[in-house]
Design a protein that fits this description.
By secondary structure, this protein is of the alpha+beta class. It has ten helices and eight strands.
Length: about 450
């Protein structure tokens, strides 16, 4: 049995010795890393850049389109007609025709203006979606960080209990040497020490997994990198008031703001559909230069005479400015149906807002109630831990004084472990609920 205990102790020491060097990491640093390396945040940022690139008057169609044209014409003609006065000849012709043409929409029912508003609103929507991605990333990092803190705290509890078991085993052996303890007491103490060693190693693995999960959440490319968490568990929880939270939620909730932007997009779409009822006026202007060259061969006339027909060159320059107007007189009600559809979609967007507001209000009340419940539960478990810790200290003194047996001492020891686990679970649940509460009111920002 002594060999088994020695092997367990050596294995625990070996595990501790093999831990790699650690880097300090606070919660704010973890959030910063997560925002820099989170793929969803990076994708959302690129979508914002795309929307900013598209938000331009040129994309909206405000400016004229200017085209350069170039036509090159080449031809060959061969003529053999005995009935003609010019019986036989052939000619080669070539020509080049460069030109510049501009088309500008003078009026189209203010469609350009509404399109620009649509592009601006789409940019705002992309920024809102990016903020939602940021919220999700921050929330994930916060929960992963606090989970690692809780697992570290549980590991420290296991380590303390393991130390107590080791000291108790040494004490029992000394008592056995002096005939004050029997082999049964020593065996029971040894079993407790081995169980505590196993629990410590299991908790050590759990803590390591929590750290790796934190690395994954932060987007750390090297999952083997270890951090020393510098933040500590703070058991004081602030108080929140429902109406104040509700006002902030209705004003700052990101999902609600995005739906409001969608409603604005639906309104702009209705305005765009309304422009189809207006006439369209275009101006088209440009200039064209035309150069032609025709070279003919020697021609044979009806009299039999051969004569060199020579070549001819010609050029011309044309400029123009044209106006055109169009208006749809009748389209079997198509435009009206499209306008009605746009108005219905606008109404749907408003109904989505109303539905989300009701859902968010319900979630806010439930989350706040859960938060207050976890807050009270944390206070109770904290008092329970204080009592269990004091009870453990008194039990240790009484055990060394021979006033209680090893069974009673072990029961008190297990009670301390259970109390600390209940406290840490209550703390993590409180932080989870508080983070959700802050997210609902739009408080998770860079």
């Amino acid at each position: 049995m002594k060999n088994r205990i020695a092997l367990v102790s050596l294995f625990v020491l070996f595990v501790l010795a093999q831990l790699p060097a650690q880097q300090p990491l606070s919660l704010s640093q973890a959030i910063e890393k997560g925002l820099k390396q989170n793929f969803q945040v990076l994708i959302a940022q690129q979508e914002v850049a795309i929307a900013q690139n598209d938000n331009n008057w040129a994309v909206a169609g405000k400016y004229p389109a200017i085209d350069f044209t170039l036509n090159v014409n080449n031809g060959y003609q061969q003529n053999n007609n005995p009935a003609s006065f010019l019986r036989e000849f052939y000619s080669v012709s070539s020509g080049i025709q460069p030109g510049v043409e501009a088309v500008w929409v003078l009026f189209d029912g203010y469609r350009v203006r509404f399109t620009k508003q649509q592009l601006e609103t789409l940019e705002r929507l992309s920024q809102g979606n990016a903020q939602v991605a940021v919220e999700n990333a921050i929330e994930s990092v916060i929960l992963a960080y606090y989970n690692a803190l809780v697992e570290r705290e549980q590991l420290e509890v296991r380590e303390r209990v393991l130390t107590l078991s080791r000291d108790r085993l040494s004490y029992e052996r000394v008592r056995q040497e002096y005939g004050q303890a029997g082999a049964f007491d020593v065996l029971q103490t040894q079993d407790a020490y081995i169980n505590d060693s196993m629990s410590y190693l299991i908790q050590r693995t759990t803590f390591e997994n929590a750290l790796r999960n934190l690395n994954t959440t932060m987007g750390e490319p090297d999952l083997s990198v270890r951090y020393t968490l510098t933040d500590q568990l703070a058991y004081e929880a602030p108080a929140y008031e429902l109406e104040a939270l509700r006002s902030r939620m209705l004003a700052n909730n990101r999902s609600l703001q995005n739906l409001q932007v969608n409603r604005e997009l639906a309104r702009i779409q209705t305005d765009l559909r309304e422009t189809t009822r207006q006439p369209r006026v275009d101006v088209r202007t440009g200039m064209v230069y035309n150069f032609n060259r025709n070279h003919a061969s020697t021609g044979i006339f009806a009299s039999g005479e051969e004569r060199d027909l020579g070549g001819i060159q010609s050029s011309s320059f044309n400029g123009f400015i044209n106006f055109s107007a169009s208006y749809t007189l009748f389209d079997w009600g198509l435009r009206q149906r499209q306008i009605e559809r746009a108005k219905m979609e606008e109404l749907i967007a408003q109904l989505n807002i109303n539905d989300l507001q009701r859902t968010l209000s319900n979630n806010l009340e439930n989350t706040l109630a859960e938060y207050n419940n976890q807050k009270e539960l944390l206070a109770v478990t904290t008092q329970l831990v204080n009592n269990a810790q004091r009870n453990l200290e008194i039990a240790e003194e009484r055990f060394r004084g021979g006033l209680i047996n090893s069974f009673d001492y072990r029961t008190i020891q297990l009670g301390y472990i259970n109390a600390t686990q209940s406290q840490l679970n209550a703390y993590f649940n409180l932080k989870t609920t508080e983070t959700e509460l802050i997210r609902l009111i739009g408080g998770l920002v860079r």
